[in-house]
């Protein structure tokens, strides 16, 4: 058989033989130098029914025969059929006289029919000439074939966006990159329909090559035609063949959208072993055949000349936000990477690596780092305690809140970015849509569902409508979305950490007003944030000078200025280390639990005295535990230590200090950092039974209260000079 294309005639029999030679002879070498035949091994596994899919890498085909690889790319469907036929022949040769294994009802059906056909042909061969002695020729190849062939594009092929796939690519193997915004349930699709005549009992087979078909009605057998019995065909589900089918909706990435355009989408049809390989929110690369959708019947008339197109998937690869393969993040660290992550100050280096071009905000960046790592989820015996850390950044305009959110969105392996005015409650949670394939009502996840087990960044949080903002209350604590719409009652997972940015109610923070008047967010929502930072733009000559020098350097050099002793970590290594950290599940021992309890009681007492209870609820304690476990994860430890607890409490205290109003002034109990340090020393002296206090313990406790180290040193020197206490040679404080 030959195929003519232009002036080139292709011998299909020769092409099939070439494919068989490739499958049998292509080999690689293992670490010991021994030859390995990957495709011959796959064929053997297919014959023994140990494997379903035959995966062909076009890199291997190109290495064997470049022309064959080009032919597969240019005429994929035809060569898919040739590869399937060649595999059928190789499987038949591998089986020899052995009967194919019987694993399910369809195997038994095929075995019985082939055996009966062989018996009948053997009986007829004695009295008359039989044109074809092969009993399997009577049945459609799609019915007998129990394997699937898939192609993987060459590594040198360009990854195209949705709008770059156009008419010249029809029928060719292309690679599409984008994000999955919708994935239907996996359902069976008919590949070969079997009918039985109710009059003569003859079986008829109807291959299905599209999304719809017209069922056969009249029996085409010779007995019914000659006797004019008009036998009616009855569908036999047991003898029919079905394949797994799933439909994906792929949307192009934001960086692929031209200015002034909206993102385009494309439908991807997935069959067989490729189903259930991705979920909404995953960034993927899909190799497949770009083909038009053939309509029939009334739909063809109604559609006119307009033809829909879709991608028939052959290979699906999950990638993260940076474009790297997810598998790459699971690889071992190189020696250079191990040296980087083995630094003593890794915590500070990781925090500095978050948006290094933004000056300052060290504690805020540490909070974002803990949100990226997350705490440990507790799901025992129906109890569910979230581990994700929610952070709210509130501050004056121009303090780089949106830049921090944008960087976190790019840095996280799985994330979604949205804004307050551009988001509705349905867009954040889930929408009910009608499935165009089945006509059923289905759910399409919103931003929070797409970011499951990741980060959702919400900018302009204060601009959201109250009705839309209430949609995320359940997500922030229960980590689920409950739906009761259009007859659909279900619960979707939204295990997501929310990082929000907002401006104060009056544009800029007004120190003459209370915290409630400046924030104007409900207490039920504020209590769900583990950390609430207020970033103010206060005039300060030295700070303003350093900030201006930093900004001008970034604009001049196009990169952040080098910080003494700290080199930012690359995004790829950052993601890789975060992936390793999330595997740890550290626990808190009894002694540290007592420290947390005492701190919580003290915070409640202070909140009661200062009428600030809206920010001090029992969720504060859970937030401290989450941050402590996140810090333990950063150390790749299985237990939380004292320093983790102190650092978590220090961050919470620093966030609380940033919220204190300046209008109270002298009325505040603690006025200066030196006064704060002395109050800590006094409390330690009283609770310690008036024993000498090690200076190291004072430093740790002051750091937990966000008191600068230089202020503590000044306090010790000042009060020692005044004769309030003495510091001995063992660095202990002894009160006079």
From TrEMBL:
Known catalytic reactions: ATP + H2O = ADP + phosphate + H(+)
BP-aspect Gene Ontology terms: DNA replication initiation; DNA strand elongation involved in DNA replication; double-strand break repair via break-induced replication
Residue ranges of domain MCM C-terminal AAA(+) ATPase in the record: 346-551
Enzyme Commission numbers on file: 3.6.4.12
Entry keywords, A to Z: ATP-binding, Cell cycle, DNA replication, DNA-binding, Helicase, Hydrolase, Nucleotide-binding, Nucleus
The keyword Nucleus is assigned to this record: yes
GO molecular function ontology, one term from the record: ATP binding
Localisation: Nucleus
SMART domains listed in its UniProt record: AAA (SM00382), MCM (SM00350)
Cellular component terms per the entry's GO annotation: MCM complex; nucleus
SUPFAM superfamilies in alphabetical order: Nucleic acid-binding proteins, P-loop containing nucleoside triphosphate hydrolases
Role according to the record: Acts as component of the MCM2-7 complex (MCM complex) which is the replicative helicase essential for 'once per cell cycle' DNA replication initiation and elongation in eukaryotic cells. The active ATPase sites in the MCM2-7 ring are formed through the interaction surfaces of two neighboring subunits such that a critical structure of a conserved arginine finger motif is provided in trans relative to the ATP-binding site of the Walker A box of the adjacent subunit. The six ATPase active sites, however, are likely to contribute differentially to the complex helicase activity.
Family according to the record: Belongs to the MCM family.
Name used for this protein in its record: DNA replication licensing factor MCM7
Organism: Steinernema hermaphroditum
């Amino acid at each position: 058989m030959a195929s003519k294309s232009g002036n080139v005639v292709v011998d299909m029999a020769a092409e099939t033989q070439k494919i068989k030679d490739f499958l049998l002879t292509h080999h690689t070498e293992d670490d010991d130098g021994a030859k390995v035949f990957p495709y011959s091994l796959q064929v053997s596994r297919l014959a023994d029914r140990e494997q379903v899919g035959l995966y062909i890498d076009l890199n291997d085909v190109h290495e064997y025969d470049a022309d064959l690889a080009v032919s597969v790319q240019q005429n994929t469907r035809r060569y898919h059929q040739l590869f399937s036929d060649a595999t059928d022949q190789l499987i038949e040769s591998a089986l020899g006289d052995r009967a194919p294994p019987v694993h399910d009802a369809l195997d038994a059906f095929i075995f019985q029919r082939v055996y009966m056909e062989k018996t009948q042909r053997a009986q007829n061969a004695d009295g008359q000439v039989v044109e074809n002695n092969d009993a399997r020729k009577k049945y459609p190849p799609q019915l007998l074939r129990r394997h699937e062939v898939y192609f993987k594009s060459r590594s040198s092929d360009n990854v195209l966006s949705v709008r770059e796939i156009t008419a010249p690519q029809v029928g060719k193997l292309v690679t599409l990159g984008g994000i999955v915004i919708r994935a239907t349930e996996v359902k069976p699709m008919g590949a070969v329909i079997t009918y039985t005549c109710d009059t003569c009992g003859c079986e008829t087979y109807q291959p299905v090559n599209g999304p719809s078909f017209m069922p056969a009605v009249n029996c085409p057998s010779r007995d019914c035609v000659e006797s004019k019995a008009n036998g009616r065909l009855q569908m036999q589900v047991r003898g029919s063949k079905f394949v797994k089918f799933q439909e994906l909706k792929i949307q192009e990435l934001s960086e692929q959208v031209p200015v002034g355009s909206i993102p385009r989408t494309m439908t991807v049809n997935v069959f067989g072993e490729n189903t259930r390989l991705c979920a909404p929110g995953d960034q993927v690369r899909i190799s497949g055949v770009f083909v038009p959708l053939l309509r029939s019947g009334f739909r063809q008339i109604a559609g006119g000349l307009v033809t829909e197109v879709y991608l028939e998937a052959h290979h699906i690869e999950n990638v993260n936000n940076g474009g790297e393969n997810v598998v790459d993040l699971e690889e071992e660290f190189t020696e250079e990477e191990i040296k980087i992550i083995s630094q003593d100050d890794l915590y500070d280096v990781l925090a500095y690596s978050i948006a290094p071009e933004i000056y300052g905000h060290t504690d805020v960046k540490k909070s974002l780092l803990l949100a990226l790592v997350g705490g440990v989820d507790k799901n025992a015996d129906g109890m569910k305690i979230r581990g994700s850390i929610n952070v709210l950044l509130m501050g004056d305009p121009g303090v780089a809140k949106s830049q921090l959110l944008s960087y976190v969105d790019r840095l996280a392996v799985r994330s979604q970015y949205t804004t307050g005015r551009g988001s509705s409650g349905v867009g954040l949670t889930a929408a009910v849509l009608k499935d165009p394939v089945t006509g059923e009502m289905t759910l399409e996840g919103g931003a929070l569902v797409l970011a499951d087990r990741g980060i959702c960044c919400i900018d302009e949080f204060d601009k959201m409508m109250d009705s839309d903002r209430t949609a995320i209350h359940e997500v922030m604590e229960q980590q689920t979305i409950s739906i009761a719409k259009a007859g659909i009652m279900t619960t979707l997972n939204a295990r997501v950490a929310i990082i929000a940015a907002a401006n104060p109610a009056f544009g800029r923070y007004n120190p003459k007003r209370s915290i409630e008047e400046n924030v104007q967010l409900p207490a039920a929502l504020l209590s769900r944030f583990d950390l609430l930072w207020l970033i103010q733009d206060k005039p300060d000559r030295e700070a303003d000078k350093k900030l201006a020098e930093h900004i001008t350097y970034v604009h001049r050099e196009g990169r952040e200025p080098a910080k003494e002793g700290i080199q930012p970590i690359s995004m790829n290594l950052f993601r890789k280390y975060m992936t390793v950290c999330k595997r740890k599940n550290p626990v808190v021992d009894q002694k540290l639990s007592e420290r947390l309890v005492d701190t919580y009681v003290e915070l409640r007492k202070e909140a009661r005295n200062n009428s600030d209870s809206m920010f001090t609820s029992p969720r504060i304690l859970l937030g401290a535990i989450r941050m402590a476990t996140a810090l333990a994860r950063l150390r790749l430890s299985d237990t939380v230590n004292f320093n983790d607890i102190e650092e978590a409490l220090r961050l919470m205290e620093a966030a609380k200090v940033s919220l204190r109003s300046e209008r109270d002034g002298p009325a505040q109990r603690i006025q200066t950092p030196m006064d704060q340090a002395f109050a800590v020393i006094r409390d330690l002296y009283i609770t310690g039974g008036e024993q000498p206090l090690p200076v190291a313990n004072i430093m740790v406790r002051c750091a937990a209260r966000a008191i600068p180290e230089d202020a503590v040193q000044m306090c010790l020197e000042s009060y020692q000079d005044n004769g309030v206490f003495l510091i001995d040679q063992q660095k202990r404080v002894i009160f006079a």
